[in-house]
Amino acid sequence: MRTPFWYLHVLLVLCASPLFAQGTVPPERVEAANWFREARFGMFIHWGVYSLLGKGEWVMNNDSMTVEEYEKLPPQFNPVKFDPAAWVRTAKEAGMKYITITSKHHDGFAMWDSEVSDYNIVDATPYGKDVLKMLADECERQGIKLFFYHSHLDWHHPDYFPRGKTGRATGRPESGDFNAYLDYMDAQIAELLSGRYGKIGGIWFDGWWDQHVDESNKENRETHVDWRLERTYELIHRLQPQALIGNNHHVAPFAGEDFQIVERDLPGQNTFGYNTTHISNLPLETCDTMNRSWGYNKNDNDWKTPTEIIHYLVRAAGVNANLLLNVGPTPEGEFQPEVVETLKAVGEWTRRYGETIYATTNGPVPPQPWGVSTQKGNKVYVHLLDGTVSGSLTLPGTALLNVKKVSLFEDGREIPFRKDGDVVIELPAERDDVDTIVTLEL
Fold first, then answer.
1. What pLDDT sits at residue 224?
2. What pLDDT, on a 0 to 100 scale, did the predictor assign at position 249?
3. Where are the beta strands (DSSP E) in 316-428?
4. What range does the domain containing 57 cover?
5. If 295 and its partner were Cys, which of 56, 176, 182, 342 is the partner (CB 3.0–4.6 Å)?
6. In a domain, 352, yes or no
7. Cβ count within 10 A of residue 154
8. Are residues 119 and 41 part of one domain?
9. What is this structure's pTM?
10. 200 and 176 housed in the same domain
11. Residue 366 in domain
12. Which residues of the chain carry a pLDDT beneath 70?
């Protein structure tokens, strides 16, 4: 293990600077949050040595692998087909504005050249290259913002103790110093924010829930341990004031967080049982997978269609949220053909209709079974996602709108409308198979 310079750096940063005054946010972060609200579409990437087994990123836990067994994976990891330019180009052509990639998942393996641990892609694999640095450089070249997913929990580190709900079959001694583990975690985060990877979009945390006590009440903030979130968040905001913090903890946001994450649901929904239904005033983001898996799963061929992804993107925008759509690259470092082809089709749609999604807010028409609305300036875009709806359609929430014109976004052709309390539009017989967009000019 190399000299832990970053431990010292973290302590100096934390001791030298007071917390930002409560209620104040530096202008760099206000600007970043506004950008994030308008971005609407990002790529999530789950990639690590677990991809070798082709069973997803939870394989160490799900297969009850010990640390000794799991440590046999890094010497086999050699992603010689990794092409960061191709990855970023695929995201950009799909209409995605940012990428969030796993810097460290729950297995504890660092996907960058970490100084505080040799358990990383440069020191522990035959590949020997810093893939996060390569990706960061390419994101800078192609104008895509880069976020890092970082796991709170760690199935590998001996000081992650007391054990949480997961990773209990790893064979580690039932002892440890949790504060020492948090020092280690903060040191690694400081490495990612050192400037080597440029100005990052932010940190996307996951795993706080591993130490959650009360499963019957997910609003209960009490945990087995003190995660020292205030200290970690201050470190991030001090080193890179523009960096946004999100935490996939499944409860209402904590102080210091800059956007709220909802997993596999739209904000306000909890069909998967993961999320709080409390929606904050922070920028919102929902994340989901292109199939059913986050990390590469060789047996998962249950791919979402381009139409399903477009509908998810549109419905997210209709509740003022971004969609972070996940890809699980192969152990060789490639996106599967299904991923590339699907995102190509999604990109064809975003190039034509992105105006109705990017830099919009949720519109006055609340979400309906048939679709949603978005708004930009004096234009309301009504997205009709259900092709079976026909004839006259009443638009709830529009009674107070002064509508001067209604037209199809596709070709500008005007369509009849009237006021009957709410606005009532006459739908054309010919409709778009994916999303018929009607523009209301106010």
1. 72
2. 95
3. 321-327, 361-362, 371-376, 379-384, 392-395, 405-408, 417-420, 422-426
4. 5-359
5. 56
6. yes
7. 23
8. yes
9. 0.94
10. yes
11. no
12. 1-23, 213-223
Domain final residue, candidates 331, 359, 387: 359
Pairing of strands 321-327, 284-289: parallel
Residues 291 and 172 in one domain: yes
The 10 Å Cβ neighbour count of residue 349 is: 21
Position 155 in a domain: yes
Beta strands in 111-174 (DSSP E): 145-151
Calculate the dihedral angle through the C-alpha atoms of 48, 53, 59, 63, rounding to the nearest 10 degrees: -150
390 with 300, same domain? no
Tokens encoding 211? 């130490």
pLDDT of residue 22: 43
Report DSSP letters for 182-231, one per residue: HHHHHHHHHHHTSSTT-S--EEEEE-GGGGB--TT-TT---BSS---HHH
Ramachandran area for residue 397 (φ above 0: left; ψ -120 to 50: alpha; else beta): left
Name the DSSP class of 420: E
Q: Which residue's structure tokens are 């393996």?
A: 109
Pick the last residue of a domain from 318, 336, 359.
Answer: 359
- How many C-beta neighbours within 10 Å does residue 269 have? 13
Domain identity same for 325 and 380 = no
What is d(CA 141, CA 343) in angstroms, rounded to the nearest whole number? 21
Q: How many domains does the chain have?
A: 2
Does residue 364 fall inside a structural domain?
A: no
- CATH number, domain with residue 243: 3.20.20.80
With tokens 């997205």, the residue in question is: 383
Partners of 417 in beta bridges: 425
DSSP 311: H
Summarize pLDDT for 423-433 with one digit per residue, the tens: 999 999 989 99
**Is residue 346 located within the same domain as residue 394?**
no
